[in-house]
Specification:
single chain; 178 residues; alpha+beta; Alpha-Beta Plaits; four-stranded antiparallel beta sheet; 5 helices
Length: 178
């Protein structure tokens, strides 16, 4: 369970830090030639990012039990994903595009061989440890299943998730200006 505060008023006053999402074709180009993949999830992702001391009062909320302020990044702030991605990109700058993809608090490590992969995982885990970032051990997956690898190599979508264009019903009452 996650506590989420209604920060709509604060978010309206916040200068938005838009973070570009990676393009899928760029990701596939990066992964070309790799045969070993591991996905690492950070535990309570945003809660591992400290809020600047001067911004702590902005996170304040009140309950019947008292007044509280977050010392770590709460869910619901407009710039939380961009701030977290920025931190992750700084921490892993020298590994990005070589054997690592970061997406908010998910990390994908990819390699051409099992030996190389074990070395890459050691680098990543050491970097996480030295930056006091913690992973969800129950969610770690070493993906070497032939199906997953072949899907990554072939640039295919899962057919069960694709709807043919001719089956999409259009509503003539909708306009682009709504």
């Amino acid at each position: 369970m996650r506590m989420c505060i209604d920060y709509r008023q604060l978010n309206q006053l916040t200068v938005k830090n838009k973070y570009m999402l990676p393009r899928i074709d760029d990701l596939f180009d990066q992964l070309r030639g790799a045969s070993m993949f591991s996905k690492i999830d950070l535990r309570s992702g945003y809660y591992q990012l400290k809020v600047k001391e001067c911004d702590v009062p902005k996170t304040a909320f009140r309950t019947r039990y008292g007044h509280y302020e977050f010392l770590v990044m709460p869910f619901g702030l407009t710039n939380a994903p961009a701030s977290f991605m920025d931190m992750m990109n700084i921490i892993f700058r020298d590994y990005l595009d070589l054997f690592l993809v970061v997406f908010i608090y998910d990390i994908l490590v990819y390699s051409k061989s099992e030996e190389e992969h074990d070395e890459h995982l050691r680098f990543v885990l050491q970097r996480l440890l030295s930056n006091q970032l913690y992973v969800k051990l129950s969610n770690q997956k070493k993906i070497h299943d032939v199906f997953h690898v072949s899907m990554l190599r072939r640039y295919r979508s899962d057919p069960s998730h694709v709807i043919p264009v001719e089956k999409i019903e259009l509503n003539p009452d909708l306009s682009y200006n709504e």
